[in-house]
Amino acid sequence: MIKNLKNFVILSTLILFLYACGMGADARQFPPDAESRVKKNIEEGRGFRIFDDKNKGGSGNFDFASSNSLWRASLDTIDFMPLASANYSGGIIITDWYSNNNNSSEAIKISIRFLTNEIRSDALDIKIFYKKCASNENCKIVEKSENIRKELSKKILTKAAVYEKETKDKNFKPYKGKAGLKDD
């Protein structure tokens, strides 16, 4: 009985590993030969180099919220508003109530939730709330304004695309071929 259980566990583990190996990237998106794949990965900043001069003396590279283009673009777009909460690991930014000096009886609050790190139209869930007060205790809060939500989303995505391009350009390292020799 124990031998059968042991064989079952081994077989199940093997099947699990084999199944997991099949869940990789789409092969159509990558060059077929290894040399081209290495070149593409290094040029896009996804590879590593053993003797890279940039990392001398450092303990490693760390990615912080500033490396996420969508996060940076969102914060830059709403930088005029006070933040109530900004949680990078939770993927949400919530502003405090904001009103301009002209009309203190009306205020706006924005919530941005990140659904993905990819720069695409469905990456953000933006909610905009309006608060209109007749007096200090008589306030009405309404979620609305589809136009402002669309404009805000468009502005954030545009900035994020610019940041992403700048990051790719900064991370680009020309590939020098095998053993660091330049291809002729």
Mind explaining what this structure looks like?
The chain contains four helices and five strands; from the N terminus they run H-H-H-E-E-E-E-E-H. With 184 residues, the protein is of the alpha+beta class. The chain has a domain at 65-169: 2-Layer Sandwich (Alpha-D-Glucose-1,6-Bisphosphate, Chain A, domain 4). A five-stranded antiparallel β-sheet has the order 1-2-3-4-5, with helices on one face. The radius of gyration is 25 Å and the shape is flat.
In short:
By secondary structure, this protein is an alpha+beta fold.
Identify the overall geometry: flat
Through-space gap between termini: 65 Å
Average pLDDT value? 77
Strand order of the largest sheet: 1-2-3-4-5
Radius of gyration: 25 Å
Flag low-confidence runs.
Answer: 55-63
Q: What would you say the CATH architecture of the domain at 65-169 is? A: 2-Layer Sandwich
Strand portion, in percent?
15-25%
Helix run count: 4
CATH topology of the domain at 65-169: Alpha-D-Glucose-1,6-Bisphosphate, Chain A, domain 4
Report the count of strand segments.
5
